[in-house]
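Protein modeling request. Please complete all fields; requests missing the sequence field cannot be processed.
Requester role: graduate student
Desired output: 3D structure, token encoding
Chains: 1
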Amino acid sequence: MSSPRVTLTGEGARSSLPTSFQGGTFRVPQGLQVNAFKALAAPAPARTSSPVSTLAPSAVQTAAPTAQTSAPVEAAAQRVRTALAEGGTGAGALALENEARALGDPAQVDALLTALAPEVDTLARDLALRARNNEDDSGDGVRRQTQTGVTSLAAVADLAGDAGVARLTTSLGQAFAAHGDSDDLNQFDDILEDLAERGRGARLGGALALDLVQRGLVEAGNAVLDTTTAAVGKIQEDLTTAQGELAVQEQRLAADLGAFGPGLTADQRQAYTDAFWADPSRAEIRDRATGLADTLATTLEKTGPALEALAAAGDSDSAKVLLNAYTLLANTDAHAEAAVDFVGRVGTNAALATKLDEHTDGNLEERLQNEVLAQALPRAQAGIFARYEAMGPEGATRAAEELDVLTAPLSDAKSVFKGIKREVDNFKLALGALSRFRDGTSWDLSRAQTIIGSWDQKNPFQRSLAVAAVGFGIYAGAQAFADGDYPQALQGFLGAARGGVLVASGLLGLFSRTADIAGDVARVGGRFLPAIGLALDGAQLTQDIANLRDNGTDAGEIVSLLGTGISLAGDVLEFIPGLGTVAGGVLGIVGGVVHAIGGFISSIIHGSEEAEKLAADRAKLLEQAGIPTDTRELLTLDPDAAAQLGNMGLTREQFLEELRKREALFDTNDGFAVQVTDTAWRLAALYGLQGQDALDLVDALRGAPPEALDRIQQQLGPDYHFDPSTGGASPEMVRNVQQQVLDALQYGFGAELAAEHGLTVDSSDVNIGFFVASAQVG
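Delivered output (778 residues):
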């Protein structure tokens, strides 16, 4: 079933394994050894013409159990011997699995395998013979000797320690060696692949592949290796699909909360969120994504040492599988730390780094920086923050210690990734200065301030370090100074970040994830989010917003940085007095970007029937969340208008009152008054008015005469002029629109209105979130 990728060098044959061959003799390079399999540590000598073991005799002893074997282990061993004698391979292997599970301790399982060394050899010889003789299973249960035998031995490997795995693979390797090299393993490798696709047995497969290749059984080793790499690849494909499906649902929830959230209390928003994920189909999507990520992480934990050794020896599929797998795990909150650890291991293994770079696309160090570390660091950091957020100053100290440990392998002196090491060293310098927070007057953050100011916001890796450093400064400050009265030194450090939309999104995502993991969005988010404004720069924000408006630049990165923070951050706004318009404005921009990259609507809305289903689903969720009937009717009357109003900085009561006024106009069938109101809100968004300022302008325009309304509408044009997904209008075109609308207002209302409400020509004032909100709601 397998097509070998590594072949022996012989007459005209070619090898992709970078080892020494002389006259068809296979020599294993020293770099092929794996620490996790200590029993295989000795390099194999040259392969002889006969298929005998090439391992050093001392690698694994198959002696009888010693006197030190514990009574429970010896009793278990005797039951296995009886089952093997009476029922053959299937019964013996199944009994071995059951006894290993009952012992429950890897050291005990290793002892059991030592006590059963002759029996394990017997099982291995029978399985190898069946494979070489193409002997298929027949019957059912334990009579399916290969199926039961391989499945149970794979389960035992998952339960054993390193020594036990080495014993199993040595017995199997010796048994296969007795029959010569071939990639035709009958049902043996098929069963391993089936198990690996379900997250089981890959540990045995990876270790056995390594053992076989070391023995010179390259074709057999590749056949077994294929079961691991193919299975991991299948898990990767499934996880990629699942993560995409989950993202659709998360964006759907964000859009729902964008439409309804401003009219709900914090408890009601949480109840809506709970009802959303309680839906069986959505719960299945989320559970599937989580389960596949866990399966992939577990599989890599068990097979990683073998895959890394084989990749270092030149196996291209192992190299690709490793890089792709850890790139996926970098985007999961639960396994981000494993992705960081992988980069550290690769950096200190020159052979592995060289082969990964050779067999994967692009520059390896850049890919690890921007596709792995940039994604993994903030997710790992959020988990660390959540663990200690309730411990005050001591919590900041503990968090700093964990961050230092997390990043230590990246700055190892032996690392071949000099760019990563340099930037992480700088991060650790900043972290060291920030961790000494107990006495704010003694802070010397000048060096840290220089570092933070030097990082390029457009470089994903450097930006992730900036977010990590600034995020820790905010975290430490909030832990040490509960009233938010940060020392001047800390304020200067945060300001040195000169953050734009990308840094703002990264910080919002970091602390939203922290709050979500901690399980208290309002309390935890309310402590940390207020300080985000200290790290932002108005000029940079203006430039970034212009880029978004003109061509959607960085839209995808922003949504990736935020994750579910789009909705979570919005939940804490009302708990942050004096938040100001900077962070609030960034939230509006980011909400609009969900639509700018296609959003969820393009994926799930197809015609009026689907739109009706969406409306019905929302109505059901509002009811399940316990929202009163009158509020439900207001929120579902016109979701597009509700979503737009939600971007205008209104309080909950202001928001609901505006919807009540709209309901009254609908009840009286006053279509013209509805047009006037809609136009007035568009004007407020065009000039960047928020909250009460926006309400004052709308109230002033409610009585607009038809001719004035017509002139204003002609100058405004359609909403898509301000939508990043359409390319939007250039800053010059936006300024022209603003000036023409001012002229129309002067014609209809006189020059005083613009001055009274602060309407000026400035393209950076446009509330993009308002203009694209209805599209992201559907």
